[in-house]
Amino acid sequence: MSKPSTERYTQRSRRVIALARHHARFSERIGTEHLLLGLLDESGGLAAKTIAKLESGDGSTRIAVLNRLDNVPKQRPEKQPYSTHCKKSLELAVREALRMGHMFIGTEHILLGVLLEEDGTAADVLHNTGVTHAAAAAHIEKVVNGPQQVLPGA
């Protein structure tokens, strides 16, 4: 499987995948670092908002991931594959959506998937800028679930 199915992906998530492909235009494969740049570019998405809230400094994640990119242009294959870590991140995004009871894959699920694939470049960058899976999941669930109503006597 060279391209994960995006059938249940939201429009924003599909745009993140397209942006990742764009960022990888000089690479041999699409990696988690390209996926992270796509998430950051889709600034209206919950993933970008979560990163902005949790990162150690404004824009520190983007700067860190750009510094980690391989800047040596390579011959891009005609059918550019996803890296193993990128495929795994996207699989984990589906699992995170199911865990949260969602029938769609949003940018927030992709972010959580990227964070769970700890061997990927993106997870390393995110951890170095203060964005952890636990903090991101807590923030996302708080935003998605909204303020909880506390019943008297509960």
From TrEMBL:
Record-annotated Clp R domain positions: 6-146
PROSITE patterns: CLP_R
Superkingdom classification of source: Bacteria
UniProt keyword terms in alphabetical order: Repeat
InterPro entries: Clp_N_dom_sf, Clp_R_N, CLPT1/2
Presence of the UniProt keyword Repeat in the record: yes
Pfam family, one: Clp_N
UniProt-listed Gene3D superfamilies: Clp, N-terminal domain
Name listed for the protein in its UniProt record: Clp R domain-containing protein
Organism this protein belongs to: Lentzea indica
Lineage, highest ranks first: Bacteria, Bacillati, Actinomycetota, Actinomycetes, Pseudonocardiales
